[in-house]
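Annotators were shown the component list below and the corresponding predicted structure, then asked to write short factual statements about the assembly.
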Amino acid sequence: MANKTKYREIMGYIKERIQTGNYAVGSFLPSENELCQQFNTTRTTVRRALEELLREGFIQKEHGRGSKVLERSKSLGLLTVKGFSGAIDYDVNTVISVPPNITSWPTMRSFALSDTEEASDCVYFQRIRNINGKPVVVEDNWYAASVLEPIDAADFVEGSFFKTLSQKHLIEIMGAEQELRAITATAELAKKLQVAVNSPILHITVRFRTSLPELNLYGALYCTTTEYPIRNSYSV
Amino acid sequence: MANKTKYREIMGYIKERIQTGNYAVGSFLPSENELCQQFNTTRTTVRRALEELLREGFIQKEHGRGSKVLERSKSLGLLTVKGFSGAIDYDVNTVISVPPNITSWPTMRSFALSDTEEASDCVYFQRIRNINGKPVVVEDNWYAASVLEPIDAADFVEGSFFKTLSQKHLIEIMGAEQELRAITATAELAKKLQVAVNSPILHITVRFRTSLPELNLYGALYCTTTEYPIRNSYSV
DNA sequence: AAGTGGTCTAGACCACGCG
DNA sequence: GCGTGGTCTAGACCACTTT
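Structure shown to annotators:
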């Protein structure tokens, strides 16, 4: 997506080199002065880029030594934050059951919307996660249409929304709040998850915060956990 | 703590004015240029200070308008890791229903024990969390007896096991892994949680890692979430 | 048009790590 | 001593909001 500013261009360049292994984990980036020459700019701008990468957990700075490339999964224990591609150890197949489309916000929400979100339409899509061909999670997702255009279902990187955000829009997940509930399956849910009506269902509502301050991603997950529990992990 | 740098000095000044209400919530800070004059410095430095305040959630910037003072939220990530005292906003009363005692490990577990844990007996205790007098969470806890002696129920700091560990043993929680399941209430659980048999129950099994590498704390939580959902939050 | 924050230039000096 | 990142100066131009 558009690198309108020079510091974003530098960020994107470094991020891409890190993600492809051109800048190896544990090694040091070129020095700020070298990056200045490479991009024909000044330290202020280079430092602006490095600072963002620092905040997003890509690098770590060492005074007098340089900027070191970090293991990218480090602080993200949070499996939920990684999306379900990472949350379950089994072979997961994701089906985009409702492709991204613009609609109005759902009425029932666990989280308050910001003013700008409230004023905007929202982009909605639904995915179903299958394990061994059996549906295990139904996941509704929403975000403000004014902040980010709908992403074409075909453009999803490996079926993952987060990977798509990171690689195509340079947006990283910065944190999340969840609410967890146990509910019983409605007729509709029971059908989608192929379980009996009134089966116990794990209901997770979540708001993900991103490196784009105006952009929150909202999710509502319905999980049948009898065979495959949902795993989370955290690091302090 | 010393304000060695000018941007910290500016930050401290603004933070203090916000916290004492001199800069009212919802109002705009002096403009960057005004702050430059006030502190006899340049915009780079003022902006560095404002940027930190932004990251810490004190202000919000509006292009073309100014920097607005925000409602200060508590937001202290990782509620689960901090234990349930912090997980629920309501008035929570904790009853130690089974005081710490030495027994053998339970047979059903979600996590594999280390060799030293396996070789040791375990300390077990059970707590029930009540909200407004109604039981909401039944929590079983275990840890290896060889690593830490049983803590007397009367010595629990504010009923919190984690606070006790931190304040009396200088042990901090470093992370956790969870498994989440939705189940239906057994007769025994239904009785303890005062709900109908077969009600949906949120079942969380968790292992907390601590700053003592040999010490893991294991938990099994049974939560009735119809009235009070369980909240989690993370930060990257 | 005037004022605000957003980006950027072209320097400077300092503190830290290493040889 | 030299290269690194940390802080800071003194400007400039742009984009956005308000009057």
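Statements collected:
1. The radius of gyration of chain A is 20 Å.
2. Confidence is low (pLDDT under 50) at residues 73-89 of chain A.
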